[in-house]
Amino acid sequence: MDPVLTIAIPTYNRARHLRETLDQLVGQMDGLPAEIVVLDNCSPDHTPEIVARYGSRVRHVRHATNIGSDLNMIACLTAGSGKYVWILCDDDLPVSDAVASVLQAIEDHGNPPLLFATQDWRDVFCSGFDRQPVRTGWDDLDANGFLAKVSFYFSAASGIIVRKDAVDHPFIAAQIGTNLVPASITVRTADVHNRGLVARAPIAICRGGNSGGYDGLQVFVRNAEILLGRCNATGFRKEVVDAMVEENLSGVVMHVVRSMPLTWTGLFCLVKSSWRRRNFRAVVVPAIIRRWIRPWRRANLRRRILARLHGRLVRSQESSNAAFGRNLSQAFPDLSVGEGWSVEGGKWIQAGSGFKAGRNLALVARRQDGLPAPCLLMGCDLRLGDGARVESSRRVEIGDRVAIGDGAVIEDGWTPVGEGIVIHSDTVVGAGSRIDSGAWIGSGVRIAPGVRLGSNCVVQDGAQVDTDVPTGAFVAGSSAIRIPNQRAP
């Protein structure tokens, strides 16, 4: 059976999330004219091993070098042999009848040029994800109706389901470097063909909190405005674009203001493009002011002190810790944790099966004022020694089969948005070691006892680290040789 639909998954260094996505996807492919292709952007983690588990059910295309996220996204448009391609992000989850729903819509609506998979956005854990089928219908719309319905979600990559021969490849290639290649595919195809289908119910669950590394205000204000201006085949009506821009200000731009770094260049772009907009004055400006003054507001400090004096924070923490312990015990019967363990911020901590820890373990996910919620993700078969401490103020991600020795400290500190600590699978961290914020540690690494890894250092796969690693260093090899002029992936 020749495939009608290719599900192309661009990925880089997210083996753990990719496994969840493939688990949810592979089970619904039986008997359907569809295929799965993973486009691996030369990930240094164990992505190849994860994909290999699925055998012939998943095709693995691995680039020889990292070609960048934009080019990898464009490569998805020609991946596989399907007439259509669905670009599904490596950390997003399709509902259990998503593939069947897409194929049925293609057949019922006469091979439309574009379909948009409506999404439901969740936290980084995809909390509350319901795997039940949604049996959604589809709205068949012209270009203006499509933009009005999709609104600012047009930049969401996992929404893109496009007929390959309907894509304007030269136009898409011209958007490289804007961080809006997915948006350009969606908007340009709807504009040129004056048609697009939109799912009435969410068929993809998107994991929030995983993006970053760019100036959000430049991308979602200036670059988005330029993109819409370049789409002039049929032309979107001014009132439709204005409504979408207003919703963008109260949606995506507000998320950027609350959760991402702000630059003077980005703020200048925002003011220049939006100062006349109602939501800029009524919603965005107050949010920026609140973000800047919140750390110094005496009222907030007074409330925190009073809450602590009255025991409210203590009771809340005890409840959170108890809930985390119950959840672990119920989910994983083989849970093993020694005496004296403590947890802070349990609702932001997730652990895989086979979790084992010694005595006096401390797991901390501590939220800082004015910053987004922290995230502490721990994979399967994790081993933590006596007195180990893992603390996240931003993001700490530990892969499968990692062993962390007695008294080891892993602490990401108060780092900028998008930075954190990543420890890949099959790594051993020696007793008494310390790993500071921004560290990136590959698979199969061995860290000797008492070693300190400085902030923003990179340890390549298979390295043996016997001495301290300076801040920002890149080390590799069996004796952890420092390699100059290298940057973190």
Explained architecture:
By secondary structure, the protein is α/β, with parallel strands linked by helices. The protein folds into two domains: 5-210, Spore Coat Polysaccharide Biosynthesis Protein SpsA, Chain A, CATH 3.90.550.10; 321-482, Hexapeptide repeat proteins (UDP N-Acetylglucosamine Acyltransferase, domain 1), CATH 2.160.10.10. Helices cover 32% and strands 21% of the residues. The chain is built from 14 helices and 32 strands. The strands form five sheets. The protein has an eight-stranded mixed beta sheet with strand order 3-2-1-4-9-6-10-8, sandwiched between helices. The protein has an eight-stranded mixed beta sheet with strand order 14-17-20-23-26-29-31-32, with no helix packed on it. It has a seven-stranded parallel beta sheet with strand order 12-15-18-21-24-27-30, with no helix packed on it. A hairpin with a 4-residue loop joins strand 31 and strand 32 (481-482). Helix 9 runs parallel beside helix 12. The protein is globular and about 65 Å long. The model is unreliable at 414-418 and 485-489 (pLDDT under 50).
